[in-house]
Amino acid sequence: MSRAPALPDPPEAADALAAPETPGAPEAPETPVAPRPSGAPTETPAEPPAPLTPAPPSAPADALLALALRDLQARQAALNAEIQALENRRDQLNAEIATTFTGQSEAIAKRVRGFQDYLVTALQALAASAEQAQLVSQPLIVQPSALDQRRAEEAATPQAAPAAAGLFSQDEAIIREWLRTFQGQPDFSADPWRLRRTLDAEGAALLEEWFLRQGGRGAQPSRGTRHRNLVVTAAAIAILGDLYGDRFQTLVLASRPERLGEWRRGLQDCLGLSREDFGPNSGIVLFERPEALVERADRLEEQEELPFIVIDSAERVIETPILQFPLWLAFAGTPIELAAEDELY
Questions:
Q1: What is the share, in percent, of the chain residues with pLDDT greater than 90?
Q2: Beta bridge partners of 321
Q3: Residue 315 and residue 255: Cα distance in Å, rounded?
Q4: Which residue, 224, 225, 293, is CA-closest to 255?
Q5: Residue 313, Cβ density class (10 Å: 0-12 exposed, 13-18 middle, ≥19 buried)
Q6: Nearest to 212 by CA among 162, 160, 169
């Protein structure tokens, strides 16, 4: 029968045998150790874990944090600027309100009080003056002057009635001189708007009656033909041109274009005119309808000009508005002349 191998001594026993004993040292209590089975590996005590150290941050994370920080700082600066602007605006509004409402109200109140004091003082002074004034005014006697006496004497003295031709009463000598001149030899080279034909005695008498008796407004018997009436009208235009210059315009009324054509050619020949002198803005205007003539005459008076209206002998009726104008000459045709006109046209 074989023998079992001898077991090695436990480590604790070997340590105890190797370590020398210290005299006088207390013995440490022994801790019982459980026996390990044969063949089991020897256990090595585990080392304590090392403390955890955070890993250093990476470069992209640092860039993102810096960008976010700058964004927050920019927003903070913008908000601070807006807050400062709003505070300044608030202070400005408060100052304006104080100046506009409060300050102005006080100034207006002061003015009102000052005006009220002025009114009270003025009314008091007026009341005091009214108490001292005499309620019954004394009659004022004024002696008439020598000028007043002379005017009274002239008014009491009967005077001769003025001539009917009040418009041309002061120009009688000029008118008579022109009429005498027109009865002489015709001046075919006279200036435009001067009579270039001879005016007979009957025509001169007709114009003298019209100027100096009728005052430049009235009807005269026709001379029998339109040509003779044209010469009389041309003489009247020449005299009016000498008296008024460019301040008058001649308006001829004839209800048919053929008659107006005769008037244009006759006046052009007697006064040395051209076709440009016949038109709305020229010296002589021709009309077929009396309404248009009256409208033109009204416009001339508004422009402070004088219309001279000439009515053809074939016109049997004179419109009433024409009679209101200061210068108009109507040729009254005889029954024989009117009948001949009807047959001709």
A1: 39
A2: none
A3: 7
A4: 293
A5: buried
A6: 169
Output the pLDDT for position 114: 78
Q: How far apart are CA 90 and CA 92, in angstroms?
A: 5
DSSP conformational letter for 278: B
The SS3 assignment for 50 reads coil
pLDDT for 5-50, tens place per residue?
Answer: 444 454 444 444 444 444 444 444 444 444 454 444 444 444 555 5
Strand spans (E) along the chain: 217-221, 248-253, 284-287, 306-311, 327-332
Q: What is the pLDDT of residues 185-213, one digit of tens each?
A: 888 888 999 999 999 999 999 999 999 99
Give the DSSP per-residue string, 152-216.
HHHHHS--PPPPS-TTTGGGHHHHHHHHHHHTSS--TTPPTTS--S---HHHHHHHHHHHHTSTT
Q: Is the CATH code 3.40.50.300 the one for domain 171-344?
A: yes
Structure tokens at 60: 């992209």
* Residues 46/15, Cβ–Cβ less than 8 Å: no
In single-letter form, the type of residue at position 155 comes to A
Answer for the pair 332, 221: CB distance below 8 angstroms, yes or no.
yes
Q: Are 212 and 236 in contact (CB under 8 A)?
A: no
278 vs 118: CA distance, rounded Å:
72
Query: Which pTM was predicted?
Result: 0.52
Contacts of 286 (CB under 8 A, 6+ apart): 252, 254, 260, 263, 264, 278
Site of tokens 């009309």: 287
Name residues whose C-beta falls within 8 Å of residue 203's C-beta, 6 or more positions apart in sequence.
223, 228, 231, 232, 235
Which amino acid is located at 81 in the chain?
A
What distance in Å separates the CA atoms of residue 260 and residue 256, rounded to the nearest whole number?
A: 6
For 321, phi then psi, to 5°, come to -60, -25
Q: Enter the DSSP assignment of 53.
A: -
Q: How far is CA 99 from the centre of its chain?
A: 35
